[in-house]
């Protein structure tokens, strides 16, 4: 069963994490989750959803006592499968290469007492000084536009998430699309508490090349280009 601090209680928060060939980063994430669950004053539920990994991601998850659901590949599909299985009234969507600072889960629950949805401020881990600049710009842009990315850890009341039909079933920008829908109902609460995400995407593709690629993809999406076409450029 999914690890819950008090298995007899309905969890206060369900954390949904999509996975696809994440064996490299999972050990650290799983260790952090175990510690945070054991230290939490609230019952928490963690749901992993695998999209067809060909490495030992699923094995690593199950060995640590977590369940790992199966889904068709695609982050939107995986997130929706996890949300459908969740038991809590509050949902947090987290990437496998991200981790929330201690006290973050509790901060989400406090925020959702008076808000419909929100996200964390972002910190990018890695050696490049540019990561500080990128994170600052992403956090500033999010506050200005009311749009959040998956890297920032989107959290939302389950009733509102279901009312909007969950994440749109599209190949890319599902986080942007959901944020835009949520923003029409309520502005997000922007937690200054940091969520840390890996800088591997920028390191692998080159910092400036990746920045340019992401801005170009966002601009094309804003112009109405299909996510199915954009994902080919992203990959």
Which structural class best describes the helix and strand composition?
A: alpha/beta
Q: How do the helices and strands follow one another from N- to C-terminus?
A: EHEHEHEEHEHEHHEHHH
Q: State the total count of DSSP E strands.
A: 8
Helix amount, in percent? 40-55%
Beta-strand percent range: 15-25%
User: What do the pLDDT scores average to?
Assistant: 91
Low-confidence stretches: none
- How is the largest sheet built, in terms of strand order? 3-2-1-4-7-6-8-5
Sheet having the most strands: 8 strands, mixed
User: Given the structure, what is the number of helices?
Assistant: 10
The rough form would be described as globular
Distance between the termini: 34 Å
Spatial extent as radius of gyration = 17 Å
Defining traits:
235 residues, alpha/beta, eight-stranded mixed β-sheet, 10 helices, 44% helix
């Amino acid at each position: 069963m999914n690890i819950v601090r008090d298995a007899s209680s309905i969890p206060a928060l369900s954390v949904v994490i999509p996975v696809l060939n994440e064996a490299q980063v999972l050990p650290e994430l799983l260790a952090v989750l175990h510690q945070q669950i054991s230290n939490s004053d609230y019952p928490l539920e963690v749901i992993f959803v695998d999209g067809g990994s060909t490495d030992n991601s699923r094995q690593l998850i199950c060995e640590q006592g977590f369940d790992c659901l199966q889904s068709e590949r695609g982050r939107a599909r995986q997130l929706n499968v996890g949300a459908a299985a969740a038991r809590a009234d509050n949902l947090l969507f987290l990437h496998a290469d991200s981790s929330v600072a201690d006290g973050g889960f509790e901060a989400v629950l406090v925020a959702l007492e008076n808000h419909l949805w929100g996200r964390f401020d972002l910190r990018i881990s890695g050696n490049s000084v540019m990561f500080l600049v990128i994170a600052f710009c992403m956090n500033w842009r999010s506050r200005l536009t009311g749009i959040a990315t998956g890297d920032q850890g989107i959290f939302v009341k389950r009733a509102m998430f279901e009312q909007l039909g969950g994440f749109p079933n599209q190949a890319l920008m599902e986080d942007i699309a959901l944020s835009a829908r949520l923003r029409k109902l309520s502005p997000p609460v922007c937690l200054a508490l940091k969520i840390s995400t890996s800088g591997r995407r920028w390191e692998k593709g080159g910092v400036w090349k990746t920045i340019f690629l992401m801005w170009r993809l966002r601009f094309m999406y804003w112009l109405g280009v299909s996510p199915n076409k954009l994902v080919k450029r992203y990959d």
